[in-house]
Amino acid sequence: MSGLTVSSADGVARVLFDRPDVLNALSPRMLSELVEACATIASDDTIKVVRFQGAGKSFSAGADLPAFLTAFRGSDPRGTADLGRRATNAIAELPQITIAGIRGHCVGGGMVLAAACDIRIGADDARFMIPELDAGIPLAWGGMDWVVRLVGETLAADLVLSCRPFGAEEALHAGLISRVVPRDELQDELAALAQSVAAKSRYVLRVTKQQLVGIRAATFDARNDADALLGALEDPESMQQGTRYIGKRIRNPNP
Q: What's residue 187's pLDDT?
């Protein structure tokens, strides 16, 4: 794949934006391959967690504008313009739990892709910005919806209209990311989190993901929780984990 590297092991898939020479800028071809990669991952029941990262020192500098301008002169400019939304939705709709590990530049479309993940962890050198309006284009790819959902309408309007950069600590306080770690510890932190999540039963992870998707789409119905709970009691992997958990708590009641 050009600009995208995908690998998997021990229930965890890793999707790497792999164009470090251009800060992992997202070309139309790369976004098309991301849509295809997500479809393949979604159909793999052995994968429980998907990690998204950027090669080198940045997550992504956003859309590769020269590549897009060239592609817009092709036979399907609207399809090209919609690629970012399709890629964002492909990440958001993955049945697995998704984690974005962010260091360095996380700009524009790169920030939108990260926003579509379930969990975002930032290194202390992460630098965020939504510069689209300064570039003479509106924020697209469904980005306004994702940013408002995560940080609220007032702050989202500030960030989108001012195009100002902001760092990891502000992103943490705004709710865009869940934790900040030293940049040299980001890989270990991501690996530990992914392994911890992947150790949980597939059934409860899928239910939790369905709950998150339902909340985001305003279709969540808590009445379904009773069926989900009863389903866990019939799932062998979930019951094995429950038995182990109870056994540990009997031996050591302190959390």
A: 97
